[in-house]
């Protein structure tokens, strides 16, 4: 049964350039938001193996299946390796790269939305700024929209 | 350092004190960030060259040695910060005790220059005494020796082995000659004198003067790491068959990080052969597996993760885990096991034995 999701502003797009990630807490759930080659993806920050903080791991590529003594490095920037045991997960799908236990990590939808003052109901959830951000105005540019997480 | 005589083994049941132990971690790696930290404790002649230890055959872990999230806030190597270790491990899991086993130093015991190796072990112990020994009442230490230099190892054990916070002798599991050889017996004798178990830890296999694995050299870190248990199997087999536990009936020998799954096979094969070949080892008056259960202790990490969790429970039953197996995390290394999620659900009495009771009995630990 699909649950309705809520919008959560994460940060400005310029604060999350390609290759970077931001870990946020939404309703008690820790979620990693990744910019992979200009597209945004979000994963639950829990490795299904031993519950490690998966999204703190190294963002890297991996070797594709190949014959013995062949090494084909690919998917650069699309794989996150758990910081504890190095298990590899596809940031785009949440699936374990080599999936012996049929594992996957929950993924969430992330969008870029135009930053207009009415839509900006709150600051980045990770920032504890006490100011009401709607009081301040900023130059609005579509290039620097808001990264919005749908949870 | 003040020394006190090691107490005799006591029951871990602390019900009378009102306090109860619940978690002891038997393999935690404290580290130095710079080789100079150890080198400055070397005697003058050796100090000139600094810390220089044998390395592997060109391969290393693509993940590094340590967990990616264990770098101390103040910088330096994972395991070098007392504060970070408390935060990520001891406080996080409310551990009663952790047994510190060092890091990046065991291969002093496979150095071709045995006197230099022994000097490094001693320098490490001096550094440990200064930085870690009194850092936290929950942190206990291991006395490092270089097993390829038994005479110096014995001196070192007699020098500081009586310290109550040094709970075991530790040395590399990698050797040129199997650990059952009489060459090493003076080390076991000295450890027994001090009432200390002897522990071995992997890492130096295929480096320095150590043998590589039985079939030959591994071709990757993956193959190397997966073969470490093979070496342990040979060491345990040699300790039992050559009579180490007959000569030193008080000796307890701790196999850290060497796996558990191979042990049932070895127990049964030794027993089966003993029935036919006993006359060649007349000192073995009982089935060899009984010596193993009485004298060998295994630590859990890296715990085998079979397809069916029940299979691991069966193996634990086969190795008499209620006597022989002690929990370890291996923090902060990449292959560590989480104290909460690392092991499958265990029957409650067995869980208590593994998580603290076996270690409390071995190391004579009581609630603080």
From TrEMBL, chain A:
Any Pfam family: Rieske
Name used for this protein in its record: Rieske (2Fe-2S) protein
Domain of life: Bacteria
Keyword annotations from UniProtKB, A to Z: 2Fe-2S, Iron, Iron-sulfur, Metal-binding
Lineage, broadest ranks: Bacteria, Pseudomonadati, Planctomycetota, Phycisphaerae, Phycisphaerales
Start and end residues of each Rieske domain: 8-119
Signal peptide as annotated in the record: none
PANTHER family: 3-PHENYLPROPIONATE_CINNAMIC ACID DIOXYGENASE FERREDOXIN SUBUNIT, FERREDOXIN-RELATED
Classification via PROSITE patterns: RIESKE
UniProtKB/TrEMBL annotation, chain B:
Top-level division of the source organism's lineage: Bacteria
Domain Amidohydrolase-related span(s) in chain numbering: 24-365
UniProt entry tagged with the keyword Lyase: yes
Pfam families associated with the record: Amidohydro_2
Entry keyword Lyase: yes
Organism: Natronomicrosphaera hydrolytica
InterPro entries noted in UniProt: ACMSD (IPR032465), Amidohydro-rel (IPR006680), Metal_Hydrolase (IPR032466)
Keyword terms: Lyase
Gene3D superfamilies: Metal-dependent hydrolases
Protein name: Amidohydrolase family protein
């Amino acid at each position: 049964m699909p649950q309705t999701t809520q919008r959560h502003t994460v940060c400005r797009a310029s604060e999350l350039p390609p290759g970077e990630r931001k870990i946020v807490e939404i309703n008690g759930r820790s979620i990693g938001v990744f910019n992979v080659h200009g597209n945004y993806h979000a994963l639950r920050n829990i490795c299904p193996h031993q519950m490690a903080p998966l999204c703190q791991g190294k963002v890297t590529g991996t070797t594709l299946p190949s014959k013995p003594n062949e090494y084909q490095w690919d998917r650069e920037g699309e794989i996150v390796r758990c910081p504890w045991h190095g298990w590899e997960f596809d940031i785009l799908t949440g699936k374990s790269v080599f999936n012996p236990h049929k594992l996957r990590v929950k993924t969430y939808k992330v969008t870029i939305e135009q930053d207009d003052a009415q839509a900006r109901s709150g600051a980045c959830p990770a920032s504890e700024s006490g100011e009401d951000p709607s009081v301040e105005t900023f130059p609005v540019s579509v290039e620097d929209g808001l990264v919005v997480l749908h949870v | 350092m003040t020394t006190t005589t090691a107490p005799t083994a006591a029951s871990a049941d602390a019900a009378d004190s009102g306090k109860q132990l619940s978690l002891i971690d038997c393999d935690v790696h404290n580290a130095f960030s710079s080789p100079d930290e150890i080198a400055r404790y070397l005697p003058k002649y050796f100090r000139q060259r600094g810390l220089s230890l044998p390395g592997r055959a060109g391969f290393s872990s693509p993940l590094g040695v340590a967990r990616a999230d264990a770098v101390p806030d103040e910088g330096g190597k994972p395991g070098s910060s007392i504060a970070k270790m408390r935060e990520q491990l001891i406080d996080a899991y409310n551990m009663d005790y952790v047994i510190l086993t060092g890091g990046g130093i065991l291969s002093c015991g496979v150095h071709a220059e045995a006197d230099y190796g022994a000097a490094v072990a001693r320098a490490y112990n001096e550094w440990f005494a200064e930085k870690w020994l009194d850092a936290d009442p929950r942190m206990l230490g291991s006395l490092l020796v270089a097993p390829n230099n038994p005479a110096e190892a014995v001196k070192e054990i007699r020098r500081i082995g009586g310290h109550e916070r040094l709970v075991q002798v530790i040395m590399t599991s990698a050797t040129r000659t199997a650990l059952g050889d009489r060459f090493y017996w003076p080390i076991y004798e000295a450890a027994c004198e001090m009432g200390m178990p002897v522990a071995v830890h992997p890492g130096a296999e295929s480096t320095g003067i150590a043998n590589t694995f039985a079939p030959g050299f591994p071709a990757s870190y993956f193959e190397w790491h997966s073969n470490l248990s093979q070496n342990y199997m040979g060491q345990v087999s040699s300790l039992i068959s050559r009579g180490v536990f007959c000569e030193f009936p008080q000796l307890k020998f701790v196999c850290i990080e060497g796996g558990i799954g191979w042990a049932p096979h070895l127990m049964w094969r030794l027993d089966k052969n003993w029935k036919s070949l006993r006359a060649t080892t007349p000192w073995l008056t009982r089935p060899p597996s009984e010596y193993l259960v009485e004298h060998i202790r295994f630590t859990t990490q890296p715990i085998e993760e079979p397809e069916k969790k029940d299979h691991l429970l069966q193996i634990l039953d086969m190795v008499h885990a209620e006597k022989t197996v002690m929990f370890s995390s291996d923090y902060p290394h990449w292959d560590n096991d989480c104290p909460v999620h690392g092991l499958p659900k265990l029957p409650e009495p067995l869980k208590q034995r593994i998580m603290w009771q076996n270690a409390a009995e071995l190391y004579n630990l009581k609630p603080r």
